[in-house]
Write a structure and sequence with these properties.
By secondary structure, the protein is an alpha+beta fold. It has two domains: 95 residues, Lipopolysaccharide (LPS) transport protein A like domain (lipopolysaccharide transport protein A fold), CATH 2.60.450.10; 149 residues, Sandwich (lipopolysaccharide transport protein A fold). The chain is built from three helices and 17 strands. Strand 10 and strand 11 form a beta hairpin. The protein has a six-stranded antiparallel beta barrel with strand order 6-7-10-11-9-8. It starts with a helix and ends in a 5-residue tail after the last helix.
Length: 301
């Protein structure tokens, strides 16, 4: 009697386990997911309170753009990697970088941020592309958008050739546009020096095809008709292939050299150094124009 009662209790317990407690394969998968999520949450919580720190020597990082068409490699003698809750920051020393086969960057220090793919280098920054070169104090690379920002750039473009300086440079590599701002100076050695507030250089395969300067544009040259020549304008358009300089202004372009004073809506200087006045042309300066020249050129005359 007792044995039959015990067997009945056992079968009942097994039934309850089978219908109410039995763990199916689906339950196992769900349980494993919960364990993984719990582990990740604990990790994120721990990183939020105290980020992980890793120090390494002779580091190489290979970074690809979002569509995996562009490759950027960073080599560094020393690295200090900080991993926080949502991002990671790596501080690098004595860096040497390759952007596909396009250019090489070297600097004393650098910082790479993930997942934003932002890279900043500073101290003795040198950017090289064949014979083209840009030096500066700080360079920032947006590796996703392929935008380069340079502070205090000093550059040389072999095709031209052209030298330039400014307070800031922004290079939109995809668009082939190089924008210079504040105290912009463009020089073609042995030909002319140009100064302005803003400059936009259009590049085709790293060769300049168009230069536009805006804001208090100044020309200083010694080769136009073998005389010291100067000009003031609002805007300058320079086409390197044609080697022509077109100055324009809302009021008047002012051009002068020994024996010539020219005030006109536009002034065109051709490759053969011929000077042409277009629009409302005068061969003398009025009082207001002379004062404007004296004010803007007082540091050069």
């Amino acid at each position: 009697m007792f044995l039959r009662f015990f067997a009945l209790i056992t079968l009942t317990a097994i039934g309850v386990y089978w219908f109410h407690i039995h763990i199916s394969p689906k339950d196992v998968t769900h349980y494993e997911q919960l364990i993984q999520e719990s582990t990740e949450l604990r990790t994120k919580h721990a990183l939020a309170e105290k980020p992980a720190l890793q120090k390494r020597q002779n580091v190489q990082k290979d970074i690809w753009s979002q569509n995996e068409t562009r490759h950027f490699r960073i080599q560094s003698e020393q690295s200090e990697l900080t991993i926080a809750k949502t991002d990671a920051v790596e501080e690098l020393k004595n860096i040497h970088c390759h952007f596909k086969d396009d250019f090489i960057l070297s600097a004393d220090e650098g910082i790479y941020s993930f997942p934003s793919h932002q890279f900043t280098a500073q101290k003795n920054c040198h950017l090289l592309q064949n014979a083209n070169q840009i030096d500066g104090t700080l360079i920032h690379l947006d590796l996703n958008q392929e935008i380069v920002t340079y502070e205090n750039p000093k550059g040389f473009i072999a095709s031209g050739p052209l030298r330039f300086t400014a307070k800031k440079l922004v290079w939109h590599k995809k668009q082939g546009k190089l924008i210079l701002t504040d105290d912009v100076t463009i020089e073609q050695p042995g030909q002319f020096t140009l100064k302005s507030n803003l400059g936009t250089l259009t590049l085709n395969e790293y060769e300049p095809t168009l230069l536009v300067l805006e804001g208090e544009v100044k020309l200083l040259s010694t080769v136009i008709q073998d005389k010291i020549s100067n000009a003031l304008a609002d805007t300058l358009t320079y086409r390197p292939k044609e080697k022509s300089l077109l100055f324009s202004s809302a009021k008047k372009v002012l051009f002068w050299q020994d024996g010539l004073s020219l005030s006109a809506s536009e002034v065109l200087i051709r490759e053969d150094k011929t000077v042409e006045g277009h629009g409302d042309v005068h061969f003398s300066f009025n009082f207001e124009e002379q004062n404007y020249i004296d004010e803007l050129f007082k540091n050069y005359l």
